Amino acid sequence: MDILAELEVRRQTARLGGGQRRIDAQHSKGKLTARERIELLLDEGSFEEFDMFVAHRCTDFGMEAERPAGDGVVTGWGTVNGRMVYVYSQDFTVFGGSLSETHANKICKIMDMAMQNGAPVIGMNDSGGARIQEGVASLAGYAEVFQRNILASGVVPQISVIMGPCAGGAVYSPAMTDFIFMVKDSSYMFVTGPDVVKTVTNEIVTAEQLGGASTHTKKSSVADGAFENDVEALAEIRRLVDFLPLSNRDKAPVRPFFDDPARLESSLDTLIPANPNQPYDMKELIVKVADEGDFFEIQRDFAANVITGFVRIEGQTTGVVANQPMVLAGCLDIDASRKAARFVRFCDAFEIPILTLVDVPGFLPGVAQELGGIIKHGAKLLFAYGEATVPKVTVITRKAYGGAYDVMASKHLRGDFNYAWPTAEIAVMGAKGATEIIHRGKSPEDIARLTKEYENRFANPFVAAEKGFIDEVIMPHSTRRRVARAFASLRGKKLANPWKKHDNIPL
Amino acid sequence: MFKKILIANRGEIACRVMKTARKMGIKTVAVYSDADRDALHVKMADEAVYIGASPAAQSYIVIDKIMQAVHQTGAEAVHPGYGFLSENRNFAAALEAAGVVFIGPPSPAIEAMGDKITSKKIAQQANVSTVPGHMGLIADADEAAAISAQIGYPVMIKASAGGGGKGMRIAWNDAEAREGFQSSKNEAAASFGDDRIFIEKFVTQPRHIEIQVLADKHGNIVYLHERECSIQRRNQKVIEEAPSPFLDEATRRAMGEQACALARAVGYTSAGTVEFIVDGARNFYFLEMNTRLQVEHPVTELITGVDLVEQMIRVAYGAPLPFAQSDLKINGWAMESRLYAEDPYRNFLPSIGRLTRYRPPVEGATASGGIVRNDTGVFEGGEISMFYDPMIAKLCTWAPTRTQAITEMRIALDTFEVEGIGHNLPFVGAVMDHPRFQSGNITTAFIAEEYPDGFQGAHLPDDILRQIAASAAAMHRVAEIRRTKISGTLNNHTRRVGDDWVVSLQGQSFAVTVQADPEGSTIHFDKDTALRVTSDWTPGQPLARLSVNGSPVVIKTSKIPMGFRMRLRGADLKVHVQTPRQKQLSGLMLEKLPPDTSKFLLCPMPGLIAKIMVSEGDEVQEGQALATVEAMKMENILKAERRGVVKKITTSAGSSLKVDEVIMEFE
After folding, report:
1. Which residues pair with B211 in a beta bridge?
2. Which residue of B has its CA nearest to A43?
3. Do B559 and A294 touch (CB under 8 A)?
4. Residue of chain B whose alpha carbon sits nearest to that of A246
5. Angle subtended by helix axes B402-415 and B425-433, to nearest 10
6. Binary contact (B486, A255; C-beta < 8 A)
7. Comparing B64 with B656, which gets the higher pLDDT?
8. How many beta-carbon pairs below 8 A join chains A and B?
9. Mean pLDDT calculated for residue range B25-54
10. Is residue A135 annotated as a catalytic residue, yes or no?
11. Could you tell me the pLDDT band of residue B508, with boundaries at 50, 70 and 90?
12. Looking at residue A459, what is its pLDDT?
């Protein structure tokens, strides 16, 4: 009877984390506690906790006097819409969520379980950093987590939600996960904070400017998205989980859908403007092809000249990569190449089919691009597409020029279905540029005439179709139906790359 | 009958005329400009002739180009629609000279009614009631008072050269008339250098009511009753109805007979409209006569059963009217809402762009016994250009009574899906729900009085919020259950979707319990109140048609985190459906105030900054051009809303900006 009473008391204490006063302080900042976050992330009542009573083992600096149960992180598993996920949630009310050896051990335990059992890991980060009192033991703890992030990469999806501070070495665990999401105004991530920055480089900067959600979603591209507050963030992570496979042993999930795969969209026949230099919004095509218009965009605010994200087609998750003519005319640049490459590799790692929508006038020219290494960054996307063995369906809507044509999931990179709209122009470059090179030195009148001739001969999908580089020219209004049927036919696709220890993508 | 006619117009009216022509077995010819190459009226016509560049001045109103198209196609007659060349006597005359029939009145009638002063004189001679006034010179304040008394108070004292309210006074008695005369005179002299003053009757509680007339070439003239067009925004009609909720039978007959008298006086044939202003005591005064088919003609067609375009064509061909005045009865009530490509949330700024979605309600008889009609000139995937009138469709409903016609209109508006551009559907929806509009107690000042600060979306009453909350809860539950049907769930440990939800919308929260059964769900609010919701809605459908306690509710729906964006009845709501625990924890979230944007110039549309006309540190005046944004090939000039000093310019020419991105900051 005493044991049962003690169990109850211990549970009560553990659930209070750092105590009511600190919980109130956490709430007053508009932040939820570690347990509240888990509650909202998981299906009601599905959370099974591990290591509730784990306490730290540090005996320096009087730490032995205070050994709160759980040691600043809540770990366990539960379900999201009935599918298993492993979670850890750092508890800022306990030593500021700082990471001790035992705190790290708890995270490692669930990561090991996740890999063994094939389920995603979702980490909710809210931590002041290393537990300084523990010294190198804390650093060792970080490294143990890092090592598992690395081994789990490509085995189970890993998602980080930054819901408070995440600084110093701590940033490198989320950095190696598949997706990082942040909460606006209450989270920040940096390797060295504003104080150190000021001391070292004399730059004066706020934590928000240095590592807030806006910085990381718009400028650094460290984060894949940001949400208004904790509640919204957790609801949207649930939405993301619905798109993701549980592990690399699993297929992309399928769920019932209420949208006719053969739905025709006659408005797409007028999507491409008469003027080839006029932009249009590629997102309209994405949402009109997707089931129910549902699109979960990744890195919306960064390198908007390429769009990446998840849709469903016939209920199955599909990754979309699309050039966006509204931004930089849809050119590929360093940022866009990196963004799309990482997304393609995620999809390939987890058997998510890829739909590529192409309207690309080429790689962005410029000194900044060349000096920034567009050669190697552009190659990342080329490499990613070329190595991907998942079903790949490509639709060229308008321009597919030059090397960028090759890169964007072309037939030559093992594209399974390469479709083109009648408005497609698959060519080495725009008509004017090509004519000026081929007919160098001719008069402007001749150039104009020859440009017209070039346009008539090459500014269409037929040259490529004659060579079999385009499987078929399809009508825009039937894009959803054609794409859905293409993916349906690829459900049994088996393709493997040659054995290797791993490849050497141009990082 | 004619074999082929040309329609010298575009947009919905060209399509409207073609519909009737097709019904009559007449071939149709469309004309089009560059911007209209893919327009609906071109697709509908049997033949189409290109007539020039996009601006109307280079295409639709160039008489020679239309004449050329007529000759080229051998059209026997031309219907001008409204606007453009419809009231251009030179055009009518040119057609007459070429032996082509103008489907409209004879050119002298157009000319006579085209001038305000002449038309008023003719009206007076024909014993049509005109606004009493004194046009002659007024010597002094005493004479002004005498004339005012003779006209009858209240009177309006106006500067001859006036405009924009300057030099204008309203006087309710002799003393005010004296004083008003003097101050108007002084102001007029100062403002216009012309101190001539005239006085006319000031019409209180003015309504715009107009009479439709139809005359053939055999001397038959009838009136097809009235239309009330008092719901106007800055003289632009927004909602029209027929009949007027204000007229009694005697006034209607008097107005109709005077309208016919005027038509007779000018030798009118074809369809025409005599506009009156009517005061609170049902005194009516002639304003002007429109010698063409009026935009709002469908409401008349709906209550009389007469196809006005058909009659215009028949009359033009020389046929007599097939009915007499006594045959023309008023049957039921008709409403018309004009759909404008103008964003009500941005002070009705014209909006251009691609119609990514355009799904009008189904036309014809409705389940509730009404009729829906939509005259449209656009289609999904089409482009709304800046070159022409922003009116893109006219949605009409008919029902036996005014109240029912309003209900039909409300449902039709809620069903009408328009995306990609800003448009006034929410505003019209709000007016339909406005108690004053519903009471029929309207004047031409209705919009100015009821929406003095513009339109921010309708504020819905509690009972409607509950209907929406019940709908959202039922829909959310369906969507959540679907989520649990995903592959890869842990057998025997699947998620059970709860029954208790908290729905938050328009600053209010409703705790509800959803009791679902195979036919639908009963949504319990408190102990006693419950709403029954049935619907065939499935997740992802943009239009949710529901029945709440037996009455139809239609909601435009899209997904947002933890709920839906729901648009209906003039409101645009974020509706959150949360578990009680989610709701409780949401209460801990900090309220984030939207950033104060008054000190910023924001990019009003996605586009490219073409030019920035000011530099940092410049002082700018209200209305001064600050920058131009190129969007959809068009340059839009952004002007200063108030005086200020440019603190910082955060972008440069050549950058492409998203909507609401900062262009510059003011001190």
Report:
1. B226, B274
2. B495
3. yes
4. B488
5. 150
6. yes
7. B64
8. 131
9. 95
10. no
11. very high
12. 86
Cβ contact (<8 Å) for B488 and A253?
yes
Between the two ends of chain A, the Cα-to-Cα distance in Å is 61
**Range among A193-197, A308-312, B340-344, B631-635 rated most confident:** A308-312
Q: What is the CATH number of domain B332-450?
A: 3.30.470.20
ipTM of the predicted structure? 0.93
A207 Cα to chain B: minimum distance (Å)? 19
Contact A44 B542 (CB under 8 A): no
In this prediction, residue B634 carries a pLDDT of: 59
Identify the sign of the CA torsion A283, A289, A295, A297.
Answer: negative
pLDDT at residue number B164: 56
pLDDT category at A455 given cuts 50, 70, 90 is confident
Q: Are B73 and B2 in contact (CB under 8 A)?
A: no
The verdict on A44 touching B (C-beta cutoff 8 Å) is yes
* Domain at B4-103, CATH from 3.90.1150.180, 3.40.50.280, 3.40.50.20, 3.50.50.60: 3.40.50.20
Q: Give A153: exposed, middle or buried? Use CB within 10 Å, 0-12, 13-18, 19+.
A: middle
Q: Which residues of chain B have a CB within 8 Å of the CB of A278? A: 632-633
Per-window interface: A 130-189 vs B, CB < 8 A: 184-185
Q: Among residues 495-524 of chain B, which lie with CB inside 8 Å of chain A?
A: 495-496, 498
Residue type, B277: I
Rounded mean pLDDT, A75-94: 97
Summarize pLDDT for A30-60 with one digit per residue, the tens.
Answer: 999 999 999 999 999 999 999 999 999 988 8
- SS3 state of residue B184: helix
Q: How far is CA A233 from CA A219, A226, A263, A346, B667, in A?
A: 20, 8, 32, 21, 35
- Going from N- to C-terminal start, the domains of chain B cover 4-103, 132-201, 332-450, 462-586, 600-666
- Enumerate long-range contacts of B537-541, CB under 8 Å, 24 or more apart: B537/B475, B537/B478, B538/A258, B538/B478, B539/A258, B539/A292, B539/B475, B539/B478, B539/B479, B539/B482, B540/A257, B540/A258, B540/A259, B540/A291, B540/A292, B540/A293, B540/A294, B541/A258, B541/A292
List, for residues B609-664, the tens digit of each pLDDT value: 888 889 898 888 877 888 888 765 557 778 887 788 899 898 888 887 877 888 89
With CA atoms as reference, report the closest residue to B666 among B606, B605, B608, B624: B624
- The 3 state secondary structure assigned to B336-400 is EEEEECEEHHHCCEECCEECCEEECCCCEECCCCCEEEEEECCCCCCEECCCCCCEEEEEEEEEC
Residue A99 DSSP class: B
Give per-residue pLDDT as tens, B538-575. Answer: 999 999 999 999 999 999 999 999 999 999 999 999 99
| Yes or no: domain B600-666 corresponds to CATH 1.10.10.10 | no
Rounded distance between C-alpha atoms, residue B565 and residue B573, angstroms: 6
Q: Which residues pair with B556 in a beta bridge?
A: B543, B567
Chain B nearest-CA residue for A301: B658
Fold topology of B462-586: Glycoprotein, Type 4 Pilin (3.30.700)
CATH number of B132-201: 3.30.1490.20
Single out the residue of B95, B35, B88 nearest to residue B68, CA to CA.
B95
